[in-house]
Amino acid sequence: MGVPFEALLPYAVCIGMFGFSGATLSKIRAMQNGGKRARHSVDQWDRQMMDRDRRLTGFLRGQTDNVKAPAGFELSNPWRLERGYT
Fold first, then answer.
1. Residue-wise over 71-81: b if at least 16 C-beta within 10 A, else e?
2. 54 Cβ contact partners less than 8 Å away, ≥ 6 residues apart
3. What is the pLDDT of residue 86?
4. pTM for the complete prediction?
5. Residue 7: its pLDDT value, please?
6. Second label for 81, Cα 20 to 30 Å away, from 5, 10, 40, 74?
7. CA angle in degrees (0–180, nearest 5) for 62-67-70
8. Would you write out the chain's pLDDT as a tens digit for each of its 86 residues?
């Protein structure tokens, strides 16, 4: 005796909803990254370059091929200084 298809409908609905939510989250993450896939294994160098790109272009994953930096870039120093002891 075979399994009636009514028993498989809830499984199909669950699989469909998991697939839809996964695809939606993937699309939202890609939109947040400027249309690019998410980065993995980001180390300190990558974070520093991403911060520089954000300061240059305004986007975390943005890149530019301009030879000269935009006006005001020389004042956006990323170095964090600690206060001296008094």
1. eeeeeeeeeee
2. 60, 62
3. 65
4. 0.56
5. 83
6. 40
7. 65
8. 667 888 889 999 999 999 999 999 999 988 888 888 888 898 988 888 888 888 888 777 777 788 787 777 766 666 666 666 76
Question: What share of residues in the chain are helix, strand, coil (percent, to 5)?
Answer: 50, 0, 50
Residue type (1 letter), 32 = Q
Q: What is the number of helices (H) and of strands (E) in the chain?
A: 2, 0
Q: Which residue is it, tokens 């370059």?
A: 49
Q: Which amino acid is at 42?
A: V
Rounded Cα distance between 41 and 46, Å, is 9
Residue 1, token pair as written in the block: 């005796």
DSSP state of 61: T
- Identify whether the C-beta of residue 27 lies closer than 8 Å to the C-beta of residue 20: no
Token couple for 59:
């986007």
**Which tokens is 54 given?**
């954000």
